[in-house]
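Q: Protein A?
A:
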Amino acid sequence: MRGGKFTYTSSGKVYVFTLTNFKWTEDVEVSGTVSWDQASNIIKAQVTLKRAGAPLGTLQIRWNDADIDAMASVTAKFKVRR
């Protein structure tokens, strides 16, 4: 981890991770939530991406953690730089 923070809460079999300016790389920050429902095995993420404080776009990601070779569904919206 190169910066930012994450916290989590749990309620029964649901864990919610909150990312705040989380950085795996040096140039992109991620903020938002990731929920993991262990009863249904569904993981969902809704995050925003920023570079140098400027918004880049958003991602919505969903997959079933119980599926072997699970395929994630990703919806992205990015700002176009001109």
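Q: Protein B?
A:
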Amino acid sequence: MTSLAIPASGRFDLPVAHGHLEAILKASPAPSAAVVVCHPHPRGGGTMNNNVVYRVAAALGAAGASVLRFNFRGVGRSTGSYDHGVGEEDDARDALDFLAGRYPGVPLWMAGFSFGARVGLTVGAADDRVQKLLGVGLALKMFDYGFLAASPKPKAIVQAADDEYGGRDAITAAVATMADPRRLWVVDGATHPFPGKLDELEQAAKSAVAFLQATG
């Protein structure tokens, strides 16, 4: 897959065991990192074109990273069907495999929003190839993030102050249990999908990326 031809648009189908994943690669000519960004819950209409996912990818790209967004199985043109997070973790690993092959020697990061944060951070924390983790909109009322208490990888978390699935107090308590190095950004006045606060989200994401870049 290292030689997989990707058109100028960056849109392509990534071959996987169940067929393919619809994907978009925004490539940097000299990437500082290669990052997978995972999208929110497929059952809630989540896709790689989600506004938050797009803004997080933009923040990463502005920092010089090559960024891969993709649709989980059963979403858009991706083959397969929803698999309750289990198969979606396989999809995230396949995305990592692609970036590892295409960018040898470049640091690999994992990022995600909501359900995508649960999938991405789970895979990223367990995969030795992944150096840094970026989570946005952690759905604390739906998923357990306790595994991050044992992960020494640098972690940056961006959350809405009024997130329905874990607002300011809940995310502050959760991040306090995570292993260092870790840092939290809270976007004031925002709810889970950051409506009307996407610019503030992107600025917070840029700060989070800068923190990760500066943290060993």
